[in-house]
Specification:
Radius of gyration: 21 Å
Shape: rod-shaped
Number of strands: 4
Number of helices: 3
Order of helices and strands: EEEEHHH
Oligomer: single chain
């Protein structure tokens, strides 16, 4: 059993979160205190973090394909690849 450092609630190890404050100190907190500290619940935070990783991976893949198309097929395909890469980035990182 762990104890939330903000509200002193007893927590299971599965639900305890580690929060790093502005000074770099780490605190064990509950999901409710995490929401108070960050303004967002943990599930939304985790979803956005995973979405950001996938966006970076897809943009890097598109850039690699664009460079390959530019080298193999010329300027037209390279420019088309850049346009498609920008579209992938815009649609993948669209904030709701």
């Amino acid at each position: 059993m762990l104890k939330c450092e903000d509200c002193s609630r007893n927590l299971d190890e599965k639900e305890a979160l580690v929060h790093t404050d502005n000074e770099g100190n780490k605190h064990i907190i509950c999901p409710e205190c995490f929401k108070k500290a960050t303004g967002v619940d943990y599930q939304t935070f985790a979803y956005r973090k995973e979405n950001a990783k996938m966006t970076i991976i897809s943009v890097l893949f598109c850039l690699a394909a664009t460079i390959y198309a530019f080298i193999e097929n010329g300027m037209l395909y390279g420019c088309l690849g850049l346009v498609l890469t920008v579209l992938v980035y815009l649609f993948a990182s669209k904030a709701k």
